[in-house]
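Curious: why these numbers?
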Amino acid sequence: MQNLQVITTKELRDNLAEILEKVAIGKQNFLVSKFGKKKALIVPVASGFMAKKTDFSKLSAFGLWQKRADIKNSSLWTSKLRTKQSQRKKLR
């Protein structure tokens, strides 16, 4: 692997934006270590990485709840569920 630079997690945390620019624009690679042990490798995204689109409608879980009458309005259903959960916490 060309252009590999070893950095610590602290260096990554302190210089994240700069390191990401070096990876994205400069095509530089970074090996991140923590307490002297290799933890992660930061490399540029390969061209065409996300070119293939996934058709979620073909997945078995897609539309799993579409026939449920109680979830027709998902915003209302979620709001009621959250209200119910928050009331349970108050009772404890």
Notes: The longest helix spans residues 74-91.
